[in-house]
Fold:
Amino acid sequence: MIVSLVGLQDTRVAAHRPGTDGAAVSVRVGGALVYMHDAATVSLVARTWNDMDRQALLLPREGDTRRVTPVRGVAEPAVMVEMASCPPVFARLERPVGKNSYLRVSTGRVLFDVRDLPAFRSTLLAFRRAEEVAATTFLPRPTQTARERAASTAARAFTAPAGPRRRTASAGRSAGVTTPAGPRTATSAERAM
Structure:
């Protein structure tokens, strides 16, 4: 699905169910709605738009609104994308010979076709805002202190023996290995005393 962006975009950023396991941050750009379900995905998408900031200067200052004029008898398409676990997101500036440059930002199967600088800037600001909102929306990942990591490493390195092992006379002598004998039990003669 291709979403053409021309001129200043109507954008909205929202947090959904903040502080829960089902938290999400959404960015609406025109008729496209992007739901992102973790902070890493929000950062990835925002970084992709940020990385194109310099190249976007080659976009026209004004776009051709004929690219987005409504088609008689056809409703404007609405697109919803759900993203999690850092899916493939990439951007590329196209510079066709003799024509205006344009930017393509791909998020999964949705391709944003950015035709001018105002469209780019307004969308970029929305994804930057999403990154700010994500900082307070998602539960923090559990982190261990240096002391907890050291204790965990030491526990793995110095495991306690599984239990007492008995030594058989022939095995101990032939291998030259001494193993601790288990607790001594009294013989029936000793118990009789």
Q: What stands out?
A: Helices lie at 39-51, 117-137, 146-157, 169-175, 188-192.
